Every structure is written in C-alpha cells, then in structure tokens.
Amino acid sequence: MTARAGTMRLACMFSSILLFGAAGLLLFISLQDPTELAPRQLPGIKFSIRPQQPYNDVPPGSSQDGDSKAPTEKVPGDLSSRAPRDFHLPVPDQPRAHLNTGARPRPRPRPRQRRRRLLIKKMPPAAAVPANGSVGAFARPARWAPDGHWVTMHRSQQERKRVMREACAKYRASSSRRAVTPRHVSRIFVEDRHRVLYCEVPKAGCSNWKRVLMVLAGLASSTADIPHNTVHYGGALKRLDTFDRQGILHRLSTYTKMLFVREPFERLVSAFRDKFEHPNSYYHPVFGKAILARYRANASREALRTGSGVRFPEFVQYLLDVHRPVGMDIHWDHVSRLCSPCLIDYDFVGKFESMEDDANFFLSLIRAPRNLTFPRFKDRHSQEARTTAQIARQYFTQLSALQRQRTYDFYYMDYLVFNYSKPFADLY
User: Cβ distance 99 to 57 under 8 Å?
Assistant: First the structure.
C-alpha cells in the first residue's frame, strides 16, 4: 500500500506540474504584442500584403467608401521668386491621401488612362474663385460676356503669355537671374485700390489707360472729364519706382500686372505723325533740329531754326543710327526695354488691335465698376484718322528695302515676344 500510494502521489505531482506549465505558457502567449510575432522586414524583402490604394486616385468629389469625403489641401502657388506670376485659372484642390480599410482597392490605371486623367484635372474650370492679385487667379467676369466669349479671351491670354515666355527663354535666358531695379519699373503706374500695375507703352492707348486708372483710384468720376495735360503732367498717378525696394517687390508679387502693346511699325508711324506732322514745342526743337541738321542735305535756315518738316525717311535714319545725334524717346523705344517683359511676368497682355475687347475683359476681371468702360475717343488730333496697317504701309513704302529690314531688325524682339507677323513679305 505504501509503494502504490507513493506512485500515485508522484503521478499527481507530475500531472500538476504539466498543467501549471501549460497554463503559464498560454498566459505568456496571450500577453505578447502580435506585431512581435511577425517576421522582421529585411532589405530587399517585401511582404505579400497588398497596400491600400491612395484616395487621390479616386475622381474628385467622390470617396471610396461612398459615405465620407476626404479632407482637402490647397496647393500653394509658385513662390520661387519675388517676381510676378502668370495669369491662370486655379486647378481644383487636390485631396489628401486617404486609406479606406473597408473597401477593396481599385486597380491602378494604365499609363495612357492615367495621363488622360491628369490632363483633365489640370484643365481650368468654367468658374473660379475671384481674386485681385497675382497670388490669386482671375475669376470669370460676372457682368461681361457669354461663357464662350470668355473662354476665347482666356485662351487668347494663355497663348500670348506662352509665346512671350518661350521667346524670352530662347533669347533672354539670363533675365530670370537678374534683379528687378527701379529702372525696370520706371514706366509702371500703380493703382492701389484695385491692386493694378500698368506698364505704359506710348502710342498703344496709354493716355486712355491712365484715365481709367484715375477713375479706378477715385481721382475722377469719368474718363471724359480728364484732359490730356492732367493725364500726362498732373502727377496724380504714382509710379512703381517711387516706392522703396520692399514696396516694389510686394506690389510685383501681389498686384495684377498688365501692359498693352501695338504692332511695332504702326506704333512707329503713329509716333512720327503725332510728334512731327503737327506743331510741337518739344519734339521739333529738340529732335527735329538735330535730325534735319544731320540727315538733310542743304537744309534751309528756316528748317534748322524751327526743326519743323522732318520727313519719315529722315526720322528712320535717326532711329537706326547707332550714333544718333539725340537720344532715344519712349514713344518709339522698344516695348521690351520699356516694360521688361522677360524679367517681369505680366498677368495680362493686351493688344491695341483688339483694344475694346481686351480692355473691357480686363476691367471685368479686376471687378471694376460696371459703368467704367475703356474710352473710345482719340486723345489728340481727333479729326485725323488713327494710324492703321494700311497707313503705316504707305509710310514704309517711302523707305528702301534695306531700311525696312533694318527697322524690322530694330524691333525684332517686340515682334517675337508679342507674336506679330512680318509686315512685309520681303523681310527675313
């Protein structure tokens, strides 16, 4: 009995030890972090677990689980330089990556489908949030034109700026690395109320544009009430170069920058007709005398005394002379030098040839008062016909083929940057 009892006691003890050991092992396992049981990921080894598809592969405005929308994050504009930005319509806000744990991930689109989707996402929307300056985007005018006309005008602006950027990149590669100085902005006028910067190009509607800026600034109630001398000599409008460097850079980066240009030969003829074919107390004695003395053989004493009667070929001789007897004037200087379009990124580029549409489109974009439109009246010599392509051609037929070519070469960058066609077929 004693031996059997001892054997039974040993068996019970052994069983108890086994039970306690098994229980302890189960308790130990239950207390472990499950992630510690997974194998560690070594370099070059990937798990076979399929990653969740990011939310931004889902079309905008929808979500993968069908009942929740992902938060959005606005994409900031390009602030790589303090120079101004492009006129553009905003791309829709891009949503953040979103992991949906309850939905089956969508298959990744093929490259062609993905490229098409990206192109669609980058297309400008039909309407945009209104903004006034370069840091924002222009909105569709609420008072102006049908959508089709607005889209046409917007695309025209995009094309003009594309041509301008490409020409500058090709021929003015170093401009982007140059600093803006007061000289570069000396022809830019400031209108602070509507945050507009206007680069003055003489003989391209500048007098009427200054009138518009004065009305926008609250200095006059109507463009028709502002005389010529007040526009040009009244000093009512501030120039950008009158501000300190911080003020200049701030306005260049936040205001809407615009300029209006004109076909170079037409602009040159318009300047000649205005300054030399009409009495003028400045251009005749300053420029006329010097031109006649230098380029007219046997000039009369009266002509040399008054400087009147300069002919167009004589004026062109002066223009093309590298040793011209009197300096350059803003009325026939290059737009490329007056406004530095390869250094200052203008938001809006208007053309004299489409002035009414371009000007009123711009006024709508900046939310100008509804009753303000671009004036149609001729500022000076109102009884005389405006200079047209046909009139300019008549003047240039007075020149030799070589003089026409050299004049075209003189304005070559203006023709290139602003996408004007060659005015004569024999030009190269």
Answer: no
Residues 6+ apart with CB under 8 A from 395: 269, 272, 312
Rounded to whole angstroms, how far apart are CA atoms 428 and 420? 14
The reported pTM is 0.67
* Residue 27, φ and ψ in degrees, nearest 5: -65, -40
Strand partners, 95: 72
Q: What angle do CA 181, 358, 229 make, to 5 degrees?
A: 65
Angle of the 312-320 helix axis to the 264-276 helix axis, nearest 10: 120
> Which residue, 66, 67, 63, is CA-closest to 98?
63
- Give the integer Cα–Cα distance in Å for 19 and 319: 110
Joined together, the tokens standing for residue 321 give 């002379």
Per-residue pLDDT tens listing for the chain (428 residues): 566 666 677 777 777 777 776 666 665 555 554 444 343 433 333 333 333 333 333 333 333 333 333 333 333 333 233 333 443 433 333 333 333 334 444 445 454 444 433 333 333 333 333 333 353 445 555 455 567 888 899 999 999 999 999 999 988 655 556 789 999 999 999 999 999 999 999 999 999 999 999 999 999 989 988 988 888 887 889 999 999 999 999 999 999 999 999 999 999 999 999 999 999 999 999 999 999 999 999 999 999 999 999 999 999 999 999 999 999 999 999 999 999 999 999 999 999 999 999 999 999 999 999 899 999 877 777 678 899 999 999 999 999 999 999 999 999 999 999 999 999 999 99
Which of these, 209, 207, 208, lies nearest to 198 by C-alpha position? 209
Are the C-beta atoms of 257 and 203 separated by less than 8 Å? no
Going by C-alpha positions, the residue among 62, 88, 90 that lies closest to residue 75 is 90
Cβ–Cβ < 8 Å for 258, 348: yes
CA 390, CA 299: separation in Å to the nearest integer?
A: 30
Report residue 422 as tokens.
Answer: 């060659």
Look at residue 251 and give its three-state secondary structure. helix
Q: In what order do the strands lie in the sheet with 238-239?
A: 238-239, 188-191, 196-199, 256-261, 348-351
In whole angstroms, give the CA distance from residue 405 to residue 70.
Answer: 62
